Amino acid sequence: MLNVSDSGIYQCAAENKYQIIYANAELRVLASAPDFSKNPIKKNSVVQVGGDIVIECKPNAFPRAAISWKRGMEILRQSKRVFILKDGRLKIHNVTRSDAGSYTCIATNQFGFAKNTGSLAVKERTVITVPPSKMDVTVGESIVLPCQVSHDPSTEVVFLWSFNGDVIDLKKGVAHFERIGGESVGDLMIRNIQLNHSGKYLCTVKTTLESLSAEADIIVRGPPGPPEDVRVEHISSTTSQLSWRPGSDNNSPIQIFSIQARTPFSVGWQAVSTVPEILNGKTYNATVVGLSPWVEYEFRVVAGNSIGIGEPSKPSEVLRTKASVPVMAPTNINGGGGSRSELVITWESIPEELQNGEEFGYIIMLRPVGSTTWTKERVPFVDSSRFVYRNESITPLSPFEVKVGVYNKKGEGALSTTSIVYSGEDEPQVAPRGTSVQSFSASEMEVSWNAIAWNRNTGRVLGYEVLYWTDDSKKSMIGKIRVSGNVTTKNITGLKANTVYFASVRAYNTAGTGPSSPPANGTTKKSPPSQPPANIAWKLTNSKLCLNWEHVKTMENESEVLGYKILYRQNRQSKTHILETNNTSAELLVPFEEDYLIEIRTVSDGGDGSSSEEIRIPKMSSLSSRGVSVIEPSIHFLSIVITIFYCFAIQPLI
């Protein structure tokens, strides 16, 4: 047995007949009691229920120390779950909650002993209680992928989501993705889900003790993608054969295709008829029918499934259909008017998309009513909608049978139905009689005349034209007003006061105007009085209002005063009441529920004169009130004074 006293330097000598050599070595004999200062037991160990734990015990000791363990104050003995390993470590298998506590390692050798204690905490396992599950959704919906756990309350849980192997960084606010829920909930919301969101979603739950995960597949279904490679295989005057390849079905089988067409004349893309009529999801070619000849077309294809209609394909190349004879006849055949010996024919022109070919024009067929021979004319202008046929033998207002047809480079097309159109007419040949002028006011007069009893010889009359002028007017200053039909009077307004006006009347029709009647004249009235009624006094007793004012004196160039108009209304009402009188006073019965506004103006042959300033009659709480409005010739303001006033006998104008 080695003792401490055996420590020292030892020398070895090796010798033969030639020489001797030496080697030295030092022997140190270590001896120490166990010591945990350099390798203490872990103070706090954590393990989950059902797990295994190994607690290290490595004291420094020379010679090697014998190891034993205590749990609390009790010596720990080996069992089916508890093992003291050869190197002194303590292993506990299938840990339970009751295994939590303090554990002490005791180390002993011949030089002494030492012990060191650590604690063991036992926590519940983390379990994903609601994992994400496979889902089948429609594009545009919003869904929630659940990921909920149960865990030890003292354990911090971290949730991570991955999509097709790539981590979703929710902290950066990735579009469509949002984490929702509380501390133990890691649900992932996907808003407005798109087709590219189909795939595998993995929820990973991490704690300081473990990491676990659950995954689910999401299938997003949507309308089909756009068909591809749309081609026009053949085109005729009214049909076109198309072929195409289907696009992506976006997880829902394609059920139907439809074809759309666009021309320079259409408003956007329009659905077209096809053969077969129904294009199921397995049909990749069709014939478009009902096209217009000689029109440029482009086509596109749209696919649909149970989810909806998808985006259209790219347009095909632009191709023109073949030409053919035009089949659309002009409509609204009309005409008439024009000059003598003319037959004017009008129609609605055919739009370009219905002309069916080049060198398009119109065919005019005409004959007098009762004739059996047609006259045929060609109008080689695409945009024409009017034709004038001239022949000196045509009498005024003669009826003709007219048909208008179409033609192009391929031949003549359809003719319209027959319409009756009358030839041109002569201007009226006679002047109206009995023209007279009557003055109504300073600015208005009435012109009247006798109607013309017309026939084919005198010329048709559609209406009359009134010409008027002053005695010193130049010809360029003549006024002109038309009336239609059998009207025989016309009021002319906006005239000068006290002025002589001359007027003449003539008939008109589509060919022009006829001769004028001999002029008649009339003088407009003098101007109405320019001065308003002044010094208006009023008295209000209950609902009776008495008014009095001064008679207005007129100037030499003004019309005489014939009477007065009293205009009155409630303050908040727009409807005005009018009372006419030939006196300088008046009495009104008015319910004074609120203020009244009153003004007075003169009446004359020349019209109404200037109004007085508006007077406000206040609603009074007392039974009676009085006032006077004084207007001096050189003063332009309203003065109200309280005075003694009575409703007295009313004097007429003299």
TrEMBL record:
<feature type="domain" description="Fibronectin type-III">
    <location>
        <begin position="329"/>
        <end position="426"/>
    </location>
</feature>
<keyword id="KW-0130">Cell adhesion</keyword>
<keyword id="KW-0677">Repeat</keyword>
<dbReference type="InterPro" id="IPR013783">
    <property type="entry name" value="Ig-like_fold"/>
</dbReference>
<keyword id="KW-0812">Transmembrane</keyword>
<dbReference type="InterPro" id="IPR036179">
    <property type="entry name" value="Ig-like_dom_sf"/>
</dbReference>
<keyword id="KW-1133">Transmembrane helix</keyword>
<feature type="domain" description="Ig-like">
    <location>
        <begin position="34"/>
        <end position="121"/>
    </location>
</feature>
<dbReference type="InterPro" id="IPR036116">
    <property type="entry name" value="FN3_sf"/>
</dbReference>
<dbReference type="GO" id="GO:0007420">
    <property type="term" value="P:brain development"/>
</dbReference>
<dbReference type="InterPro" id="IPR007110">
    <property type="entry name" value="Ig-like_dom"/>
</dbReference>
<dbReference type="Pfam" id="PF00041">
    <property type="entry name" value="fn3"/>
</dbReference>
<feature type="domain" description="Fibronectin type-III">
    <location>
        <begin position="226"/>
        <end position="324"/>
    </location>
</feature>
<dbReference type="GO" id="GO:0030424">
    <property type="term" value="C:axon"/>
</dbReference>
<dbReference type="InterPro" id="IPR003599">
    <property type="entry name" value="Ig_sub"/>
</dbReference>
<dbReference type="Pfam" id="PF07679">
    <property type="entry name" value="I-set"/>
</dbReference>
<protein>
    <submittedName>
        <fullName>Contactin-6 isoform X2</fullName>
    </submittedName>
</protein>
<keyword id="KW-1015">Disulfide bond</keyword>
<feature type="domain" description="Ig-like">
    <location>
        <begin position="125"/>
        <end position="213"/>
    </location>
</feature>
<keyword id="KW-0732">Signal</keyword>
<feature type="region of interest" description="Disordered">
    <location>
        <begin position="512"/>
        <end position="534"/>
    </location>
</feature>
<keyword id="KW-1003">Cell membrane</keyword>
<dbReference type="GO" id="GO:0005886">
    <property type="term" value="C:plasma membrane"/>
</dbReference>
<dbReference type="InterPro" id="IPR003961">
    <property type="entry name" value="FN3_dom"/>
</dbReference>
<dbReference type="Pfam" id="PF13927">
    <property type="entry name" value="Ig_3"/>
</dbReference>
<keyword id="KW-0393">Immunoglobulin domain</keyword>
<dbReference type="GO" id="GO:0007411">
    <property type="term" value="P:axon guidance"/>
</dbReference>
<feature type="domain" description="Fibronectin type-III">
    <location>
        <begin position="528"/>
        <end position="622"/>
    </location>
</feature>
<keyword id="KW-0472">Membrane</keyword>
<dbReference type="InterPro" id="IPR013098">
    <property type="entry name" value="Ig_I-set"/>
</dbReference>
<keyword id="KW-0325">Glycoprotein</keyword>
<feature type="compositionally biased region" description="Polar residues">
    <location>
        <begin position="512"/>
        <end position="528"/>
    </location>
</feature>
<feature type="domain" description="Fibronectin type-III">
    <location>
        <begin position="431"/>
        <end position="527"/>
    </location>
</feature>
<dbReference type="InterPro" id="IPR003598">
    <property type="entry name" value="Ig_sub2"/>
</dbReference>
<dbReference type="GO" id="GO:0098632">
    <property type="term" value="F:cell-cell adhesion mediator activity"/>
</dbReference>
<feature type="transmembrane region" description="Helical">
    <location>
        <begin position="635"/>
        <end position="653"/>
    </location>
</feature>
